[in-house]
Specification:
The protein is of the alpha+beta class. It is built from 14 helices and 13 strands.
Length: about 475
């Protein structure tokens, strides 16, 4: 082969070899870049997955930001990370085009000058950074910015499109988390609002998580103590006040009374004007102690009224209440129709508790309950109480033992009732046996010792009446013709 042809072939093969070497280098570069992108995507996927598990809907907005920033700093090896919110004014100097997804801003050592950099650079305080928009629902509400203080291979490689993609994924997770957090907060507010009208305790007793789960006809049979209380002579009081003052008066009173019921394990089932109906699922002692504490709440409220120079002249020196209780089985549930239903309690126990509250006026007592309730007390000696009568209320065939809890009385009155407790019990026994003359004498002696004992005076007058006109078929039970 001529020498010239040989040189030509050698040059050809050298060229081909150089070309193949270049292709190998480029292939290695492509493979290396692909491997790096794959590592970035795997890392991003793991980071976002971990972040999604960590962010629960019940977290507040600041708590969500805290978790995202921590993930960005550790997962992307950033030195700085912040969230600029639109509502806080942090985006006032940011151009609108940066806030429209999928817009982003990548600033590394190779980035040319850009007018948008300055305000973000001041916010992140790092020379190399990425800024991506955060979208909640359909609105851009923030920018997520992450940055590094230096770039130097191989330990601090320049930020690139892979980092942008990862941060965009995190921003997407952040936007969804904020949207879910807002929805969760709204649902919680709605649930709290419902709870103001339907007690949470009521729902728990029905085995329901929220009002959304309640269905018409849901019901539960249970043994509870029912409490009724109302303000003495409220009709007279209300006549002295304007309609607005009436509402303010009741709300101020309930601000004192309602926490007392909750503190003793009860919950308010309904308000009936100035009256309260409450249920106590626990011990009878809790309900009776709540009744006693309600009187202290009324005294505190009275002191508050007297300190109000504007309304005090129209108010009595003291606000007084009456409380009635009874324990027994009841049905708790929902009534109405599909378009309008409400929670309620249906039971003879409810009616009897209401009757006891009415009898508190009759006997001049602060708290009246039934023997059925005191029989359920775990510690009956802890409170001052006495049996004052046995009555047959309207619509009932059996007698009900009427018990006065005089624990909330003033100390001197309570001491006198303690001192005459045995005498009262003897006079009541004589009364129930039909010995009205001796019973009258006993009740009159108690009344002389304690003129404030209205129950003794009432019983003495009744005994005198029965002495002159004995009732037929006397069973020791006083029939009452009032509800």
């Amino acid at each position: 082969m001529p020498e010239d042809d040989l040189h030509k072939q050698l040059d050809y093969y050298r060229g081909r070899l150089d070309e193949l070497s270049g292709q190998i280098v480029r292939a290695d570069s492509i493979v290396s870049r692909a491997k790096r992108e794959l590592r970035q995507r795997r890392s991003a996927l793991a980071l976002v997955s971990e972040l999604q598990r960590a962010i629960t809907p019940d977290l507040s907005r600041p708590q969500v930001f805290e978790k995202v920033i921590a993930a960005v700093l550790s997962g992307l090896k950033m030195d700085r990370a912040i969230v600029l919110e639109r509502d806080s004014g942090g985006l006032d100097n940011i151009t609108d085009d940066l806030l429209r997804p999928p817009a982003h801003l990548l600033v590394n050592s190779a980035t040319p000058p850009d007018d948008r950099i300055a305000p973000l650079l001041g916010a992140i305080a790092a020379p190399y950074f990425i800024a991506v928009p955060v979208v909640e629902g359909e609105q851009t509400t923030a920018l997520l910015i992450a940055g590094r203080l230096r770039e130097a291979k191989p330990y601090f490689p320049p930020l690139d499109d892979g980092d942008v993609s990862t941060l965009q994924s995190i921003a997407g997770t952040l936007g969804a988390a904020l949207h879910n957090s807002a929805l969760y907060a709204r649902v919680r507010r709605m649930a709290d609002s419902f709870a103001r009208f339907v007690p949470a305790e009521f729902l728990r007793l029905l085995g329901r998580e929220s009002m959304v789960d309640v269905e018409l006809g849901d019901q539960l049979a249970a043994d509870m103590t029912v409490l009724f209380s109302d303000i003495r002579s409220f009709t007279t009081l209300s006549e002295r006040m304007t309609p607005r003052e009436n509402f303010d008066f009741l709300n101020q009173y309930l601000r004192h009374a309602a926490p007392v019921i909750q503190a003793h394990g009860g919950f308010i089932d309904k308000y009936i004007g100035d009256a309260i109906m409450a249920l106590f699922p626990g011990e009878a002692d809790d309900a009776i102690r709540a009744a006693v504490a309600l009187h202290q709440a009324a005294r505190d409220f009275s002191a508050e009224l007297q300190a109000n120079a504007e309304i005090a002249p129209r108010m009595p020196r003291g606000i007084h209440i009456g409380v009635g209780l009874h324990s027994g089985p009841l049905m708790l549930g929902t009534i109405g129709f599909a378009g309008r239903m409400e929670s309620t309690v249906i039971s003879d126990a409810v009616n009897l508790a209401s009757r006891m509250e009415g009898l508190s006026k009759h006997y001049g007592a602060g708290v009246i309950t039934t023997g059925q309730t005191t029989a359920k007390m775990n510690d009956p000696a802890a409170l001052a109480w006495r049996i004052v009568d046995k009555v047959q209320v309207v619509g009932k065939s059996k007698g009900v033992e009427v018990v006065e809890v005089y624990e909330p009385d003033l100390p001197e009155t309570r001491a006198l009732k303690n001192a005459t407790a045995d005498a009262y019990a003897r006079a009541l026994a004589q009364y129930q046996q039909g010995d009205f003359t001796r019973a009258a004498a006993g009740f009159e002696q108690i009344g002389a010792a304690n003129p404030a004992d209205k129950a003794a005076s009432l019983m003495a007058g009744r005994c005198i009446k029965y002495t002159m006109n004995p009732p037929e078929n006397w069973r020791g039970i006083t029939p009452l013709d009032q509800k």
